[in-house]
Specification:
2 strands, mainly alpha
Length: 69
Amino acid sequence: MTRGFRLDSDQRLNNFAIEPQVYVDDSVQAGWTEYAEKLNGRFAMIGFVALLAMEVITGHGVIGWLTSL
């Protein structure tokens, strides 16, 4: 029965002997992943709605709004 501690080779108490299980994650974390595509699509939808809202509020399109600054 393990109680969370072990004795080292000199029979001294070692409270930090139990280490977490190490594993290798083979899944892809960069590039064209499904998560990245969903996130980019959501940001694009937010940007498109923001542009439409700006056009409704100001009465100008994007180009007209940028030239009036």
